[in-house]
Each structure stands twice: as structure tokens, then as C-alpha cells.
Prior knowledge:
Layout: E1 4-6, E2 12-14, H1 16-69, H2 72-85
Antiparallel strand pairs: 1-2
Helix pairs in contact: 1-2
Amino acid sequence: MRLLRRNRSGNARPTLGRVLQRVHLGLALIAVGTAGIFLTLFALRAYANHNLHLIARSISYTVEAAVVFGDRPYIREAMVLIAAKEE
């Protein structure tokens, strides 16, 4: 099977099958790359969302008693402490 044909001037040129194979490979690489990017972004978003839930749970556990008993200075102190440790 010949992959390259010679034209009249003697220059080699690719066959239609070879060109289609290259185009197909390029499209496949683009599709896999795009899917990888979207999956990475989805995973990062899920990770960030999970961290936000953990921070919210930590805040609620920390200040729950102070909110029930109306201890505003402790609530403010706990919130400032948690905000200083989290980015």
C-alpha cells in the first residue's frame, strides 16, 4: 500500500486516506482535551463546594451555643477567628 503518491513534478503528496486519518486524529485529540478540561473544572467546582459546606458546618458547630444564648461578643470573636484561618 502506498501512502504517498508522486505527482508529475516528482513531489510526494499524501493520499486522501492519510489526510482523513490525520484529520480524524486531530479531532479525537481535541475532543479528549475538551472533555479533560471540563471534567477538571467540574471536579474543582465540586471540591470548592465541598470545602464551603465544611466551613459552614464548622461555623455552625462553633457558634451554635453562643447564638442560642445570645452571646454576641463570642459570636463575633469566633467568626473573626474562623475568617482569619480560612482564605
